[in-house]
Design a protein that fits this description.
Layout: H1 3-6, E1 16-17, H2 28-44, H3 49-67, E2 74-77, H4 80-90, E3 98-102, H5 111-120, E4 123-127, H6 136-140, E5 147-153, H7 165-174, E6 178-182, H8 194-197, E7 201-205, E8 217-221, H9 223-226, H10 266-282, H11 284-301, E9 307-309, E10 322-326, H12 332-341, E11 344-345, E12 347-349, E13 352-355, H13 363-372
């Protein structure tokens, strides 16, 4: 861990913050950049509007690089839910088709598909959890020639289980289904590559592992997905030449860009640009290596008489999210409350205590967490 990086996170002066799978504190550089843009508006109005657009495009390129895709395949939205809803609503559905997903998915990756089920008579098939894992053979076995979409998180929010994306993608391709991935719990801390992982579409946001303020999400559409999905939410920026206000019959932009409807909170992109520099400077592979070291240390040094590790720690399945279960009668909420009183911030998820450190956390902080557990 780089000490200069740690100094960018003043939260470390007051807290041992281990809840990055929920919401992350942005680095000081991001806050400074965001305030700089707001001061610009305060002093100059829209004089420097094209600078704001330039920063947004820098963020698009940086986001595309994290997924190894073309920048025009990335659209910025408000959040992950927007992206998944755009995919669900943009497909043409027929009664009798089905969607395959996981029983314990975060609701963002369930509700859009549930709406399609209720509206079009489509079957929604759920694979159950097995001992903190997804049995991928069981999951892929739910697909058939009526499967239109396979939807899954790259990393599960309530277990930390990391899926074998290429295996699922091959099962989806075998029945000509689209593979749609919620990447918010993986982006930045688990290597992702749309070309080798073979997912067709993805959605995510910047406020968790990507260390940015809330308010910006993204949608990725492969060429294969774009052929099947139409934009159902459009606005003036969706147009190919959006500053030509007189041509209202012009085409929409190519790729995913048609899904961007109008203006954004430009200051947020200034923050995102600075936060993403961290991931490109350190590299996601190195960040992942460090975080797995921290979480391995947590799992290896727990008092197994008091706690069990729910999360799979098998190679290829483990992630920077570790979920624990107390074996001596404390609820997850009670454990989180006790730790909070000791200035250690984790979060309950059902009957599990979820721990999610980031690159500026230290092994000493993990040791303090272990000592503080009731």
């Amino acid at each position: 861990m780089n000490e200069n990086l740690r100094q960018l996170f003043p939260i470390t002066k007051e807290w041992i913050y281990l809840n990055h799978a929920s919401c992350s504190p942005p680095p000081a550089t991001a806050l400074e950049a965001m305030n700089e843009q707001l001061r610009d508006v305060q002093m100059n109005g829209s004089l420097n509007y094209h600078n704001w657009v330039r920063v947004k495009e820098n963020c698009r390129q940086a986001t595309a690089k994290l997924l190894n895709v073309r920048s025009e395949q990335i659209a910025f939205l408000r959040n992950t839910s927007d992206g998944l809803s755009c995919i669900a609503n943009g497909l043409t559905w027929n009664a009798g088709e089905n969607i395959v997903t996981f029983q314990n998915e975060f609701p963002s990756n369930v509700y859009p598909w549930r709406r399609i089920r209720d509206l079009f008579g489509v079957e929604l098939r759920f694979c159950p959890e097995r001992n903190g894992r997804i049995d991928l053979d069981e999951f892929c076995g739910l697909t058939d020639d009526k499967t239109k979409v396979v939807a899954l998180s790259a990393v599960q929010y309530a277990s930390g289980f990391r899926a074998d994306l290429p295996k699922i993608a091959r099962a989806a391709r075998a029945v000509d289904a689209l593979f749609v991935v919620d990447v918010i719990q993986a982006m930045g801390v688990n290597p992702l590559d749309a070309q080798t992982d073979l997912f067709d579409a993805a959605a995510g946001g910047f406020h968790k592992w990507l260390l940015s303020p809330e308010g910006i999400g993204f949608l990725y559409l492969s060429d294969r997905a774009r052929e099947r999905i139409e934009p159902t939410l459009v606005g003036w920026i969706s147009a190919l030449h959006h500053e030509d206000f007189g041509d209202i019959e012009q085409s929409f932009k190519p790729g995913a860009l048609a899904w961007e409807t109008g203006t954004f909170a430009s200051s947020l992109f200034y923050a995102v640009e600075k936060s993403l520099e961290i991931f490109h400077n350190f590299g996601v592979v190195e960040i992942n290596r460090y975080l797995l070291e921290l979480t391995d240390s947590l799992c290896d040094n727990l008092d197994t008489r008091k706690y069990e590790v729910v999360s799979s720690r098998l190679n290829g399945e483990k992630s920077p999210i570790v979920c624990l279960r107390n074996l001596q009668g404390f609820s997850a909420a009670e454990v989180a409350k006790i730790l909070l009183s000791k200035k250690i911030f984790v979060i309950p998820r059902g009957d599990r205590i979820r721990v999610s450190p980031h690159i500026y956390n230290t092994k000493d902080e993990i040791d303090q967490l272990i000592s503080a557990l009731p």
